[in-house]
Amino acid sequence: MSKHILILTGSPRQGGNSDLMADAFIRGAESAGHQVTKIQTAQLKINGCTACECCYSSGGKACVQNDDFNQVAQAMEQADAIVFSTPIYWFTFPTYLKAVIDKFYSFLIGEKQLPIRESMLLVCGEMEESSIFDGIINSYSQSISYMSWQDRGCFYVTGVCKKGDILATGSLSQIEEIGRKF
């Protein structure tokens, strides 16, 4: 069955390692007949959540701050699955993607049911130790549990820093296959 998959990227570096991961996933998913929407969160203007609890109270928009999160919320309202593709920043999500995740609060306050049923985390980082991913994986796991999304897995790539380093790892073909089987 065909799915509508939303990919949220977290890097400000277009064409960087996590962007290449997202594109590999998209190639695989689209070859399997899925529809994919990619949103680069670093290119958006999203304010931090102020916990005003006025979500969905202003003309049906998710956030009354009237920032680009409303665009992301609309895409989420159309998605069956969500994939996060990001570098690790200080052991967790970069601020761009974290601002989006913080505003997931709007769906709870606004009592908005999303069609999203499953999710996945694709993450890369400079260091070789896999333990550096513990923080982001825990944050991801807690978030999706709270949203009641089925975890389709976490795929991480160590030892990539410079733009394009991931090309030498063989990971992109693995990620493309994951997208194909998603």
Low-confidence parts, pLDDT < 50 over ≥5 residues? Answer: none
Sheet with most strands: 5 strands, parallel
Tally of alpha and pi helices: 6
Radius of gyration over all CA atoms, rounded: 16 Å
Order of helices and strands: EHEHEHHEHEH
How many runs of DSSP E, i.e. beta strands? 5
Shape: globular
Could you describe the 3D structure shown?
The chain is α/β, with parallel strands linked by helices and 182 residues long. 34% of the residues lie in helices and 19% in strands. The chain has helices spanning 17-31, 69-76, 95-102, 105-109, 134-147, 171-181; strands spanning 4-9, 35-40, 81-87, 118-124, 150-157. The longest helix is centred in the N-terminal third of the chain and has 15 residues, at 17-31. The radius of gyration is 16 Å and the shape is globular. The N and C termini lie close together (10 Å). 38% of the residues are buried. The mean pLDDT is 96.
List the helices and strands and how they pair.
Blueprint: E1 4-9, H1 17-31, E2 35-40, H2 69-76, E3 81-87, H3 95-102, H4 105-109, E4 118-124, H5 134-147, E5 150-157, H6 171-181
Parallel strand pairs: 1-2, 1-3, 3-4, 4-5
Any descriptors?
182 residues; 5-stranded parallel beta sheet; 19% strand; 6 helices; alpha/beta
What can be said about this structure in brief?
The protein is of the alpha/beta class. The protein is 34% helix and 19% strand.
